[in-house]
Design a protein that fits this description.
The complex is a heterodimer of chains A (406) and B (137). Chain A has 406 residues and is an alpha/beta fold. Chain A contains 14 helices and 13 strands. The chains are: A alpha/beta (406), B alpha+beta (137).
Chain lengths: 406, 137
């Protein structure tokens, strides 16, 4: 097997920069290095031209107008700008925001801050399959609702929400619809017109672009959306986001988007084939494996599975030459198990036993087989060591056991 | 988590994985932790007529640190008397495995498992248990 280790299969965390993107960026470090806001000389004009060309490429890729793209430092900043910016701007219209428990912290934490400031936030739950219940959303609207923020595709389980339906509901009620599209742009077709989205956050480093640059789509027509800036000082990006633009990274961002859109049909087929093969091997060769999140509405390259009776970090150690992540508490900085998995209702034990695979452009089918081979062995070994597996084999219903907490 | 050599060694080659007959009178079984916490350790000791732990086995659901801590515990238990075993401190496990601060609780759980196994053995054999030393469960 000609597999080079370590293998990277954690595509939801980040992606390597495509060599074509690096090449596109290079002139902008030492040759076209001007400040895009320097209006009075050719260095600035050249930089500005590069930025505007990039802006157009990115806008077109998501069905937007270039004037509707605000460059930021990444999706976290875009989410903050969207949520806090709308809250501040529309505070007189209302103070109610609807979001979902499975959102990224970059959405949940701004909402938490806003509720401390007097905003009313509704956190919709999700069904065991990871999708929101549209009826619950319908019932959640009030006459004070100013914003709905629901991510297009989830970073942990890859589940894609019913975006068009949500967009319709928001339009009917004149409520702004923001989506964290970080895991969707570049992976699946994403068109703000078709989905009825008013604001969308996304970033370059999830689509083979550089880290440190992202964008916020802010609709200008029907309706004209306004966001209060979070950064003041110079008025860049039509006053919405001050700060000198990261020209080289913006150029890279656009190149990455262009490649993603052009190659999406073929790449999707390839990545999905790898994901499906991994899923097939794991579910047929290993017992007690549970896939998290509905396979019916999922990113083509995502797979999140729980291996009953074994814990995630020990699994990762067993496949130490493969880079993936886990929902286990032991692998998180907060020592909490994945809140996304918890909200599916799978139980903490299965959350601790999960692995997340994000297959990428540079992965191969050989790598998938290598990983599956290894996992079969590691899971078996860890189950031999597992008191939970032993109890299960003895016919004990683990749910009825009285555990002694420490 | 970038672990030290000794810990990795215990993970790759855990000592004394397995089970003893929990119904046997000379076997003490301790089960500590909970699946919700991501850590469950089962530790068993087999005590001979002279009060010496002649065998110890473990099974653990948990991270590398938890597995290594319980594996190390079984290694240390063998050959000790029951009273000597009660003296095993989690801090010694931390030092031996170079556990990072965030993983110290795994060593505490291993110490709890040892004590739970000893308490079980004593209770089965009518030996009085000093609840405080045992760190009552």
């Amino acid at each position: 097997m000609t597999v080079k280790t370590p293998i990277y299969m954690d595509g939801h965390a980040t992606t390597p920069v495509d060599p074509r993107v690096v090449e596109a960026m290079l002139p902008y470090f030492t040759q076209v290095f001007g400040n895009a806001a320097s209006r009075n000389h050719s260095f600035g004009w050249a930089a500005e031209e590069a930025v505007e060309k990039s802006r157009e490429t990115i806008a077109r890729a998501i069905g937007a107008d270039p004037k509707e793209i605000v460059f930021t430092s990444g999706a976290t900043e875009s989410n903050n700008l969207a949520i806090k910016g709308v809250a501040e701007m529309y505070a007189e219209k209302g103070n109610h925001i609807i979001t979902v428990v499975t959102e990224h912290k970059a959405v949940l934490d701004p909402c938490k801050r806003l509720s401390k400031q007097g905003f009313d936030v509704t956190y919709l739950g999700v069904q065991p399959n990871g999708l929101i219940n549209l009826e619950e959303l319908r019932a959640a609207f009030t006459d004070k609702t100013i914003l709905v923020s629901i991510m297009t595709a989830n970073n942990e389980i890859g589940v894609i929400q019913p975006m068009a339906e949500i967009g319709r509901m928001c339009a009917e009620r004149d409520v702004l619809f923001h989506t964290d599209a970080t895991q969707a742009v570049g992976k699946i077709p994403f068109d703000v017109q078709k989905l009825g989205v008013h604001l969308a956050s996304f970033t370059a480093h999830k689509l083979y672009g550089p880290k440190g640059v992202g964008a916020l789509y802010v609709r200008r027509r029907k309706p004209r959306v306004r966001v209060a800036p979070m950064l003041d000082g110079g008025g860049h990006e039509r006053g919405m986001r001050s700060g000198t633009l990261n020209v080289a990274s913006i150029v890279g961002f656009a190149k990455a988007v262009e490649i993603a859109v052009t190659e999406m049909p073929e790449e999707t087929k390839r990545l999905q084939a790898m994901r499906d093969h991994l899923r097939k091997r794991l579910t047929t060769e290993i017992d007690h494996v549970h896939e998290n999140g509905t396979p019916e509405s999922k990113l083509p390259q995502s797979l999140n599975v729980s291996f009953e009776f074994v814990e995630g970090e020990s699994l990762l150690m067993g496949i130490a030459d493969v880079a993936v992540s886990s929902g286990s508490a032991c692998t998180s900085a907060s020592l909490e198990p994945s809140y996304v998995l918890k909200s599916l209702g799978i139980g903490d034990e299965l959350a601790h036993s999960s692995l997340r695979f994000g297959i990428g452009r540079f992965n191969t089918m050989e790598e998938v087989d290598y990983i599956a081979d290894k996992l079969v062995g590691v899971v078996a070994r860890l189950r031999e060591m597992s008191p939970l597996f032993e109890m299960h084999n003895e016919g004990v219903d683990l749910k009825t056991v009285q555990w002694s907490h420490h | 988590m970038a672990y030290g050599e000794k810990l990795l060694e215990h993970y790759e080659n855990p000592r004394n994985v397995g089970s003893l007959d929990k119904k046997a009178k000379n076997v003490g079984t301790g089960i500590v932790g909970a699946p919700e916490c991501g850590d469950v350790m089962k530790l068993q000791i087999q005590v001979n007529a002279d009060g010496i732990i002649e065998d110890a086995k473990f099974k653990t659901f948990g991270c590398g640190s938890a597995i290594a801590s319980s594996s190390l515990a079984t290694e240390w238990l063998k050959g000790k008397t029951v009273d000597e075993a009660m003296e095993i401190k989690n801090t010694a496990i931390v030092e031996e495995l170079s556990l990072p601060p965030i993983k110290i609780h795994c060593s505490v759980l291993a110490e709890d498992a040892i004590k739970a196994a000893i308490v079980d053995f004593k209770e089965k054999n009518g030996i009085p248990v000093d609840r405080e030393t045992a760190g009552a469960h």
